[in-house]
């Protein structure tokens, strides 16, 4: 039995409450992270392989423990090549250099503008180089999300096809080689799901808002951890940027109970699988719809989304092609929702070749569309929470109970944090005391030597 450690905030088998996820941030600040972790778990879990999440802990001092207890370390990443993640890349490089087990990076991307300028230097270039070199010392090849990231690594001196290869997003391959999309009839009476990001340009936010109103039966599916807190507790609001985005709980979407937040993948896929259409500016919000077989339109807002949209051939709409007259029903009429299905087999084969090159076992060896896997059987036994019930549908007693539950969990976390800090301080004090003893012994020894020398000096004068 092989046992792999995997970068993830939670296992798909764990069914955490919304309160737990809020306090412990087991979704890594964005519930979309659960989607690609879910797919990798399903792909790699066999009768002879199990995966255990690292709960996003990066501690180089745990290298000996990891070496002794795991057969490999699987690290799926999103747009990790960015300034805010650079400190973690440094820690990963230090940790990986201490490991003696294989390390596999299954997807990583560059955070960059929609129109990428790869001639420029980035403040994190050296951190990326150190990270990639560390990984390549522990694996055959590194998987990147798209062409933009591949060109970036090539510019840094790494060779495409030897050091790195484009594999897309692993979330797209968890259910096999075929990726069927339903032929739905999309009308104003359709139930649709919407996803959105405040980082989109204002005219895109305006388009998404008016498009939602074209379908009375619409639901907004947020992904940020802060938005989970909003729907669960009724606040606090997000810092408003003055654009057309549901920043506050007073927004119509919240007040009319048209927000659905999912804390696990199975419930999410089940819900979007009932929709006739998904559209918006979130990557995994639309990937979830595609995996559920629902037609999807994604509006990429930056280079990281663009490279994935192009690689997987999503049905996409560029922001530059949207103006005040763009109508969602016109876009739907012209859209080819099946093109992602047509591209899927080719991309899947390339992904499987990547896994094979790294020597990773997987469930698709005999059947590229295998059903009822070990993973599936275990998932079927979990009674997952449905979408989070909105605060607007709660009684005062329920809402008070939620706040009390959050505060209690936060107190426990704070207590553990304080206990850990106290233990570390006690350890530091003990080490300093030992150092003082050594220094005192050294000073005493030198004092004796000085006294003897001085005594000898005066003795000679006599």
Strand and helix map with partners:
Layout: E1 2-6, H1 18-24, H2 33-44, E2 49-53, H3 63-69, E3 72-75, H4 86-98, E4 103-105, H5 125-136, E5 142-144, H6 147-155, E6 164-166, E7 192-195, H7 202-213, E8 218-220, H8 225-233, H9 252-255, H10 265-272, E9 277-280, H11 283-291, E10 296-298, H12 303-312, H13 328-334, H14 339-357, H15 374-379, H16 396-461
Parallel strand pairs: 1-2, 1-3, 3-4, 5-6, 7-8, 7-9, 9-10
Helix pairs in contact: 1-8, 1-16, 4-5
Domain Polysaccharide pyruvyl transferase: 30-299
Pfam family, one: PS_pyruv_trans
Organism: Rummeliibacillus stabekisii
Rg, alpha carbons: 27 Å
On the 0-100 scale, what is the average pLDDT?
95
Q: Can you list the strand order of the major beta sheet?
A: 2-1-3-4
Spell out the helices and strands N to C.
EHHEHEHEHEHEEHEHHHEHEHHHHH
- In helices, the fraction of residues equals 40-55%
The best one-word shape is: globular
Secondary-structure content class: alpha/beta
GO molecular function, one term: transferase activity
Domain Polysaccharide pyruvyl transferase: 30-299
Pfam families: PS_pyruv_trans
Organism: Rummeliibacillus stabekisii
Overview of the structural elements:
It comes from Rummeliibacillus stabekisii. Keywords: Coiled coil, Transferase. Residues 30-299 form the Polysaccharide pyruvyl transferase domain. The chain has 462 residues and is α/β, with parallel strands linked by helices. It folds into three domains: 2-176 and 343-385, Rossmann fold (3-Layer(aba) Sandwich), CATH 3.40.50; 192-341, Rossmann fold (3-Layer(aba) Sandwich), CATH 3.40.50; 397-462. Helix content is 45%, strand content 8%. A four-stranded parallel beta sheet has the order 2-1-3-4, with helices on one face. The model has no long low-confidence stretch (mean pLDDT 95).
């Amino acid at each position: 039995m092989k046992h792999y450690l995997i970068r993830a905030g939670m296992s798909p088998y764990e069914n955490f409450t919304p309160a737990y996820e809020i306090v412990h941030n087991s979704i890594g600040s964005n519930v979309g992270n659960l989607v690609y972790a879910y797919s990798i778990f399903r792909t790699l879990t066999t009768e002879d392989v199990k995966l255990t999440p690292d709960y996003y802990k990066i501690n180089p001092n745990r290298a000996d423990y990891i070496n002794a207890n795991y057969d490999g370390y699987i690290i799926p990443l999103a747009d990790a090549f960015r300034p805010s993640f650079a400190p973690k890349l440094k820690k990963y490089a230090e940790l990986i250099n201490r490991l003696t087990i294989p390390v596999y990076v299954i997807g990583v991307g560059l955070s960059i503008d929609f129109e990428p300028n790869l001639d420029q230097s980035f403040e994190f270039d050296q951190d990326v180089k150190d990270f990639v070199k560390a990984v390549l010392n522990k694996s055959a090849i590194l998987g990147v999300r798209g062409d933009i990231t591949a060109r970036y690594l090539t510019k840094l001196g790494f060779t495409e096809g030897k050091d790195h290869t484009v594999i897309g997003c692993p979330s797209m391959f968890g259910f096999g080689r075929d990726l069927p999309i339903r032929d739905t009839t999309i009308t104003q009476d359709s139930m649709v799901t919407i996803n959105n990001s405040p980082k989109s340009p204002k005219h895109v936010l305006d388009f998404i808002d008016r498009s939602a109103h074209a379908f009375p039966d619409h639901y907004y599916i947020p992904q940020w951890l802060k938005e989970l807190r909003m729907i669960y507790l009724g606040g606090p609001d997000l810092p408003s940027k003055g654009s057309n985005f549901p920043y506050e709980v007073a927004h119509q979407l919240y007040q009319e109970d048209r927000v659905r937040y999912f804390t696990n993948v199975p419930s999410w896929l089940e819900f979007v699988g009932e929709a006739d259409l998904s559209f918006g500016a979130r990557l995994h919000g639309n990937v979830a719809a595609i995996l559920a077989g629902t037609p999807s339109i994604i509006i990429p807002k930056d280079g990281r989304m663009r490279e994935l949209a192009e690689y997987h051939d999503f049905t996409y709409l560029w922001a530059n092609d949207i103006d005040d007259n763009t109508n969602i029903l016109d876009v739907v009429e012209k859209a080819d929702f099946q093109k992602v299905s047509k591209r899927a087999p080719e991309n899947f084969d390339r992904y499987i070749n990547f896994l094979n090159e790294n020597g990773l076992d997987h469930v698709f060896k005999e059947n590229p569309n295998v059903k009822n896997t070990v993973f599936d059987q275990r998932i079927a036994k979990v009674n997952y929470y449905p979408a989070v019930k909105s605060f607007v549908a709660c009684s005062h007693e329920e809402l008070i109970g939620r706040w009390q539950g959050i505060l209690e969990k936060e107190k426990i976390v704070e207590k553990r944090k304080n206990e850990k800090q106290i233990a570390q301080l006690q350890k530091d004090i003990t080490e300093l005391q030992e150092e003082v003893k050594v220094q005192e012994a050294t000073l005493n020894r030198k004092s004796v030597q000085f006294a003897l020398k001085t005594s000898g000096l005066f003795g000679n004068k006599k």
